[in-house]
């Protein structure tokens, strides 16, 4: 197997990489807005009135889009001491159970954020004049996609295509396979 085929990306990998790219663009815009606000306020004594709302809007999108990547590449914190003490067969089901708990939480978060968005859809941000529901849409979208990723992970675990990560492998994989 060549090095090129060893790192062939699947469609979920490419989707998450695209989401990472979007998150990066939003982070750049957020950084430019905050830098422009600081520059404008302290050097020209002319505050940018839209910057506070823009920051309030963009920051959740950066965080929650990045959470999709963290979930896909299993970059989240986990305490595996007890699971690692179990027999290998039990470890697999404990790993699957943890994914199931995460899935339940993700579905709950996505639904709750959607309902909150419904309640705020008619509230408008005073300066940008856009609906406040855009603030919660980031949570709805990200946790819906996280839920899909977790379902894919569960199917892979059941089919034996995703193994329980060892602690050493988790440290080695910090670069997401790049």
TrEMBL record:
It is a multi-pass membrane protein. The chain crosses the membrane at residues 21-44, 56-73, 93-114, 134-155. GO terms for molecular function: transmembrane transporter activity. InterPro entries: DctQ, TRAP_DctQ. Coiled coil: none annotated. Residues 30-158 form the Tripartite ATP-independent periplasmic transporters DctQ component domain. It holds the Pfam family DctQ. The keyword Transport applies. One of its GO terms (cellular component) is plasma membrane. GO terms for biological process: C4-dicarboxylate transport. Keywords: Cell inner membrane, Cell membrane, Membrane, Transmembrane, Transmembrane helix, Transport. It is found in: Cell inner membrane. The keyword Secreted does not apply. Belongs to the TRAP transporter small permease family. This is TRAP transporter small permease. It comes from Halobacillus locisalis.
């Amino acid at each position: 197997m060549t090095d090129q085929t060893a790192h062939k990306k699947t469609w979920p990998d490419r989707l998450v990489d695209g989401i990472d790219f979007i998150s990066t663009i939003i982070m750049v815009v957020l950084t430019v807005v905050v830098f422009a606000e600081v520059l404008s306020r302290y050097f020209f004594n002319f505050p940018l009135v839209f910057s506070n709302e823009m920051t309030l809007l963009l920051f959740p999108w950066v965080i929650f889009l990045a959470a999709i990547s963290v979930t896909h590449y299993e970059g989240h914190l986990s305490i595996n001491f007890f699971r690692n003490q179990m027999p290998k067969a039990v470890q697999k089901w404990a790993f699957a159970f943890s994914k199931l708990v995460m899935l339940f939480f993700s579905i709950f978060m996505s639904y709750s954020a959607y309902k909150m968005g419904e309640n705020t859809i008619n509230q408008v941000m005073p300066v940008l004049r856009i609906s406040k529901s855009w603030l919660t849409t980031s949570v709805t979208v990200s946790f819906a996609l996280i839920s899909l990723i977790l379902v894919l992970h569960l199917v892979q675990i059941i089919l034996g295509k995703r193994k329980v990560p060892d602690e050493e492998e988790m440290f080695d994989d910090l670069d997401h396979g790049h």
